[in-house]
Amino acid sequence: MKNSDSPDSIRGEYEALGVQIYYQTRGVFYRNPHEEMVRTIIRTVIARSRLDLSSVLDLACGSGEATIPLLELGAERIDAIDPYTGEAYRKRTGRTVEPISFEEVAAGGLAGRSYSLIVCSFALHLVSQSRLPLLLFQLARLAGPDGRLLIITPHKRPEIQEQWGWQLDDELLIDRVRGRLYSSSIEA
Question: Which domains occur in the chain, in start order?
Answer without folding.
Answer: 33-184 (3.40.50.150)
